[in-house]
Amino acid sequence: MTTAQSARVGVDVGGTFTDLVLHDPVRNIVRTGKLLTTPDDPSEAILAGIARILREADLRPEDVHSVIHGTTLVTNTIIERTGATVGLLTTDGFRDSIEIGRETRYDLYDLFLETPTLLVPRALRLEISERIAADGRVLKPLDEAAVASAVKQLVEAERIEAIAVGFLHSYHAPQHEMRAGEIIRALYPWLPISLSAEVAPEIREFERTSTACANAYVQPLMARYLDRVQTSLEATGFRGNLYIMLSGGGITTVREAKDFPIRLIESGPAAGAMASAFISRLAGLEHVVSFDMGGTTAKMCLVDHHEPNHKFDFEAGRVRRFQKGSGLPLKVSVVDMIEIGAGGGSLARIDPGSGLMKVGPRSAGAKPGPVCYGRGGTEPAVTDADLVLGRLDPAYFLGGEMSLNLEPVRRAFEARITAETGIDVEQAALGVQRIVDETMASATRMHLAEKGKDPRRYTMIAFGGAGPVHAWNLARLLKIRQLVVPLGAGVASALGFLVAPPATDMVRSYVARLERIDWARVNALFAEMKAAGLALLTEAGAVPEQITFRPVAEMRHVGQGFEIPVPLPGLELSEADVPGIRATFFDNYRDRFERVVEESPIEALSWRLSCAAPGWTIDLAGAVPSTTAPATPTPRTHRRVLFEGVGWQDCPVYDRYALCIGTQLRGPALIEERESTCVVGPDSAIAVDAFLNLVIDLP
Known about the structure:
- This is Methylhydantoinase.
- Pfam families: Hydant_A_C, Hydant_A_N, Hydantoinase_A.
- Residues 521-691 form the Acetophenone carboxylase-like C-terminal domain.
- By secondary structure, this protein is an alpha+beta fold.
- It is 31% helix and 26% strand.
- Among the domains are: 7-77 and 224-260, ATPase, nucleotide binding domain (Nucleotidyltransferase, domain 5, 2-Layer Sandwich), CATH 3.30.420.40; 85-191, no CATH class; 503-612, Dna Ligase, domain 1 (2-Layer Sandwich), CATH 3.30.1490.
- Strands 13, 14, 15, 20, 23, 24, 31, 34 and 35 form a 9-stranded mixed β-sheet that branches.
């Protein structure tokens, strides 16, 4: 990185706002920005935001070393079913595997059960004569003429835009899939191809094929989007690198994002978890609940020992939002979090059947947005309720760039809520807050309970445009005693892009009992994955000597239907490591289930390698001009705020940028910055730590 080209920009495109953070370590500059997302073409807000933040920092596009970007485009495409027309080639006799699935019902007693719409209809799934056994033996050779004929039919008669190939046992022996890919490329070089052995080289045919189909489904759209973003950036004079955030929290190249876009399905939310991990490391917090509330959704994630929890499967496009089994199963590495339809744009309504008030998951989004935005919204949203309750300053939203109008909000509450229930506007707004906060608290309790965790032993880190507004009350409901709100909380997800390391996860499946494992074969798998990870991360800007590798085996008792991750002692293993691996398996099993069955045999299914380079460190103090503010600053104004169970309180309003290290305050108080407002209730102690975080101790 040269002095002239030292700035880095993180860009998070959300459902309502696009957030930006610029960091230039050479010039010691940190700048933040937030503007409304442009749903019709997200790249418009990206370019406008980058141009603006460069102007504020007095930099040119030529000074930018890299732009790191995350997007919800993959998720939205699958949810809305707006992807490509996809064809599937599969083993003879297995055409309906992705439709049969696991033969389970996510609701046993629903006679009219709705199943997720398949991405590849039956007419576009064609069978190919070939067969490989589970041990890798070729039982029936690949019919190459059938592959060519099937592809011609799909392309010329069915007009497919992408193709997936999922043959039986290709995770172990991929040669037939590879040869089919060569045939397809020779016939139609322009056609995007997703081979299941490359997209998800793991055991379990249904999940592997489903992942390959989903990858093909979003591949053309994602390639066009990334090309458009890259071309538009270059047109401004940008000569640096464009990197993309993976769902697992690492950053990768545009090339990998185009080849495997399904790995970006949780790209945006992962950045928030990485920001929390960074902040927890700075502040020395070992156990953290990451709370990210934006305009459309709220995300919660556990961060233990400065690392967000991960998992290696995901369900996309669930028919029932929180019902496991109602979506499309994907084998991808993701940060383990819960996502709730509770954001600043979540709409309030009276349910006609029960007469009760409901909030979300339907959102006003960026267009038209909440009523107070004055962009055509007519239904009251959470942000509207926050305005009525005094939590937001109508003249200082987005630092004063956007004015909020209270009168249309009151009329909307009167028409939509008061007319139906008879309660006044203030109580209706308080009801919206109660519902949305209880919804988030309930989901968080469940998420922690599933992992055997007690929220009282955790600190909450809150960010996102709406996160600091609701965090104090959410922490109170969860009985969490300490809350941390970082500087620039409203754009902290974009900060996550800048501190995330170049990282990727590799996986190969090889099933064997622990005492019968061929360790030479395992070592060869790890060597292959290490070489691939090293090449990819070097392309993503990592220094090869700084890349670390963490091997993990997914193991279970023989006969179980699920497995647990077991850390391994190294990349070169032998029979001598078996006792240690067995002991680690029992330790992890006991931690999850509080009991072990030592006499039951153990088997390994998949072997994973996490590859990561060091992330960046950012001094957020660069975002605040040098100040000699007193330890107890003078509030710039006061505002009445309605708190549940307490009533209206006269709250001092502080300028976030005037609070220096060591400042101590008492709640109730409002602390405003450009992109968010932190609401602190009565009897709470507030301190500014050495990293300019607000540390709030609840009573």
